[in-house]
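Example: NADP-dependent glyceraldehyde-3-phosphate dehydrogenase.
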Amino acid sequence: MAGNGVFVDIIEGDVFKYYSEGEWKKSASGKSVAIINPTTRKTQYKVQACTQEEVNKVMEVAKAAQKSWAKTPLWKRAELLHKAAAILKEHKAPIAECLVKEIAKPAKDAVTEVVRSGDLVSYTAEEGVRILGEGKFLVSDSFPGNERTKYCLTSKIPLGVILAIPPFNYPVNLAVSKIAPALIAGNSLVLKPPTQGAVACLHMVHCFHLAGFPKGLISCVTGKGSEIGDFLTMHPGVHCISFTGGDTGVAISKKAGMIPLQMELGGKDACIVLEDADLDLAAGSIVKGGFSYSGQRCTAVKVVLVMESVADTLVEKVNAKVAKLTVGPPEDDCDITPVVSESSANFIEGLVMDAKQKNATFCQQYKREGNLIWPLLLDNVRPDMRIAWEEPFGPVLPVIRINSVEEGIHHCNASNFGLQGCVFTKDINKAILISDAMETGTVQINSAPARGPDHFPFQGIKDSGIGSQGITNSINMMTKVKTTVINLPTPSYTMG
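Written out as structure tokens, the predicted fold is:
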């Protein structure tokens, strides 16, 4: 399983190595970073604590490797990506095991993440061949005042070295969503995985290694953010940063300088439920959207805004479904598993206690054991409560009762976040009007927010991010336009 079989090279003793120049290495620091199992709250794994000198070397190698990779035929890049995807799916079990132990992801969902990641890599290979295999041909006489004396050829070329920083909650899927577009476009890739989820990332990187990518093209450095975090994001060798996470992204964007940024920084996804909604559909979507993976998803339903006339019925239906959620360890495939860290659990508890002090209605008794928090629906939440605005990233969901659609839209738009939102109604005209009014990157109609399918555009506005993700958008974002203009001595007209 983890660290065994084909993965035996990535660990020495009890410390996993980092990846550079096509080799698995120990850091010269002699130090390691502990990864705490959220369920046992004990050290599960250790990874290398890389130094700034090692980061410099990785960047130097990545720059050199990218130059030759950019000359690799597009079909060959795609072929290697397909091979990596197959290896990744073949070894889904040990990678899923890491996800269970590092981030307490339910076992079944952990396997699904790895398989989905393989599918994403294959789709990216196919899409990249289509997108990058064609350019544009322009002629000058389409603009006033010009004869046809210029032919303009445009194509997409790689940016250079891409720095990819995925989050803990989907460390494999959100890593390959950055790696695959970068590679098909002709870039090299430096991956800085999250601490919780780092070992799953290292196993995933080894699958790319086994596929036979050129040495130095892919690197994976682990370590303390305080030591190499800013050093990586401000490194002059980086030509683009793709980051998924929280507030750290705002700081990165201020320091990064004039390079393209692709950032998704969380949300407070609002669910608006109208009087004519299918309440059974809404309740099911709210529970799935709000509580799957213990609410630790950027696109989780974070606040329910329901019309007062149907609020009692909706809350009753949601409560009935919450009562059926299983709570316990991820190995048992429970619906609610421990949140990722003690600090996360403490933050969530702070939001709950604030709501209690301000007289929110607790639909269940608040219960916590270590990092495990039982699912909790809070009714009659008011705008003066922290939970109305802050992202808990846990299994706690507030319900705010509204008296008009405008009130719901106002609350949604007053948030500093703008990732996704959803609206439940049988009136398509209302759905479109509300969707247009909601200041979010995506609005789901009659379904909970979701990132996928992975080829759909995915973006946030305001504090939820910069740029757009999704396979096609990521490929385009990790390239730049190159133009060649042919100047003719006399105007030329085809079949003139």
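Residues 268-443 form a domain with the Aldehyde Dehydrogenase; Chain A, domain 2 fold (CATH 3.40.309.10).
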